[in-house]
Amino acid sequence: MKKYSIGIDLGGTKILLALVDKFSGEVVLSVKKKTRKEKGPEKIMSKMIDGIEELLEDSGAGIDEISSIGVGAAGQIDREHGILIGAPNLDCFDLNIKQQIQSHFDIPVYVGNDVEIAALGEMKFGAAKGCDDFVCVFVGTGVGSAIVKNGTIIHGATGTAGEIGHIIVDLNGRQCNCGAHGCLEAYASRSAIEKRIEGALRKGRHSAILDYMESGKPITSSMIEKSIEREDELVTQCVTEASEYLSGGIASIINFINPKLIVLGGGLIEAVDFFYRNTIKKARSKSLPVPATKIEFKKAALGDFSGVIGAAFLEERDY
Q1: pTM of this prediction?
Q2: Which terminus of the chain is more solvent-facing, meaning fewer CB atoms within 10 Å of its CB: N or C?
């Protein structure tokens, strides 16, 4: 068995790449790049290829020591062919990730959904270790999830199972990046909170978050947390609203799938403890009584590295 694999977590705002020890799951070296989706899919691909070359050069690992490259992308995946079919938060459609990376490095490449790879990482080395029946929900630029049953990720008939961000919570609601109206992601993601805050600021509302914002740059989860620590009314209101919607989505998971465990992760969950605590409290109260008493919640234990570690082990999955 070769010693290393490379894991890549391709998200809406950042690309995280890591050289991972296949025996221990340890991240030996990592590289982070801004996605800059506005520059197009080919630029995203070149950033991933550059990041892989940077990892190899800085670590001193030889190409013959790498068993595979795994990529998790925020969108719908054709796993057999390694194609990113559709990713509204990346403005990418029918992007053949596998072919482009594999032709450059001549190493087997595997592609999965971003929350799917996070679930693999958490199941192998993190919060879900030893549990074969759980749902992983990650909240950041969007809202995604992965369903694990009997230790296997459920892909569904078209490979798109687990798209909790696109369950409809308001039939005539806000437009989502996917084009539909009323999706959970349009209410419960960091992007949704950002839009609500910015809209209120344009109408003249005051907020402590103005002390952290920079022109032309997005509102981050860290800014949101700092504002809540200062008991800012506007930010707390927007986060509470998002939490209400997310808790409803999670209650629906509990009632419909009845998992043993729900692992919550992503930038917003990690940074904003109020959001995490309020969400699980409300989710229990909105669930049916029996599963509500049995369900266990955990924060993702691997933090930013959930995805890259999981991606490094995609070759072990049966696609």
Answers
A1: 0.89
A2: N
